[in-house]
């Protein structure tokens, strides 16, 4: 059983050029280690965008690459300068909608499953979370490993509470975790988890996210 407490599903906001705030003065040239990025979509704790230009010492990124980064809230400018160590490369076979819908919850699901003992095929697992999207993601991943999602008599309980949790301590660990989530998306693990609801937002709009990604 997926035990939740009725937090509404957050919206996904499409960012268009006329809705994003203008870059002040001119498009700043990225410095060493920086990427200039055009945001396209935000939701559930992450923003997706396209690299517009890259400065020196940004090995692995080039113009036109799709990337994702943690949403810090607030108004997004039309072009942003971010350190290349703060962004994640996005595979071409994943849509922007899938990234903002599943990356945050998927990171939490991965962390819970790695922190628990191994899930055995056929055993009953109960998922507890105040966030229904996280509950769905954890249950979906556990089910893909052969678990039965149950409401009682569970051999294993996976419980998520935002307070006190730890995020990956380095960008390298976060990037590796994201790769595993992207692979899970590709293999259809989250097919039954709803995409974030799409909504357009005007200048300066913020998206309240129930998912605080791991």
Strand content: 15-25%
For the terminal residues, how far apart are their CA atoms?
A: 22 Å
Mind telling me the C-alpha Rg? 18 Å
Structural class, by secondary structure, is alpha/beta
Helical fraction: 10-25%
Task: Give the overall form.
Answer: elongated
Output the number of helix runs.
3
Order of helices and strands: EEEEEEEHEHEEHE
Sequence stretches where pLDDT stays below 50 over 5 or more residues: 1-9, 16-25, 199-214
Largest sheet: 7 strands, mixed
**How many strand elements?**
11
Rounded mean pLDDT is 81
Walk me through the topology.
Elements: E1 2-3, E2 11-14, E3 34-43, E4 46-54, E5 66-70, E6 80-83, E7 88-89, H1 96-115, E8 124-129, H2 132-144, E9 148-149, E10 156-160, H3 171-186, E11 197-200
Helix pairs in contact: 1-2, 1-3
Verbal overview:
The protein is of the alpha/beta class and 214 residues long. The protein is built from 3 helices and 11 strands; from the N terminus they run βββββββαβαββαβ. The strands form 2 sheets. Strands 2, 3, 4, 5, 6, 7 and 11 form a 7-stranded mixed sheet that branches. Helix 1 crosses helix 2 (132-144). It is elongated and about 60 Å long. The two termini are 22 Å apart.
Give short descriptive properties of this protein.
214 residues, alpha/beta
Structure, briefly:
The protein has helices at residues 96-115, 132-144, 171-186, and strands spanning 2-3, 11-14, 34-43, 46-54, 66-70, 80-83, 88-89, 124-129, 148-149, 156-160, 197-200.
């Amino acid at each position: 059983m997926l035990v939740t407490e009725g937090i509404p599903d957050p919206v996904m906001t499409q960012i268009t050029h006329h809705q994003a705030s203008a870059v002040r003065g001119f498009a700043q040239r990225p410095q060493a280690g920086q990427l200039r990025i055009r945001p396209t979509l935000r939701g559930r704790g992450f923003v997706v965008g396209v690299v517009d230009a890259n400065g020196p010492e940004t090995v692995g990124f080039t113009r036109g690459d799709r990337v994702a980064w943690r949403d810090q809230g607030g108004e997004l400018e039309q072009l942003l300068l971010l350190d290349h160590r703060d962004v994640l490369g996005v595979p071409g076979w994943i849509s922007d909608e899938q990234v903002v819908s599943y990356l945050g919850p998927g990171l939490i699901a991965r962390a819970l499953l790695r922190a628990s003992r191994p899930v055995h095929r056929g055993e009953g697992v109960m998922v507890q979370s105040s966030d229904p999207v996280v509950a769905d993601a954890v249950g979906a991943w556990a089910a893909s490993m052969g678990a039965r999602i149950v409401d009682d008599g569970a051999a294993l309980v996976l419980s998520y509470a935002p307070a006190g949790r730890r995020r990956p301590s380095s960008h390298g660990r976060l990037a590796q975790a994201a790769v595993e989530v992207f692979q899970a998306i590709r293999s259809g693990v989250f097919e039954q988890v709803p995409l974030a609801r799409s909504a357009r937002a005007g200048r300066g709009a913020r998206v309240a996210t129930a998912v605080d990604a791991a």
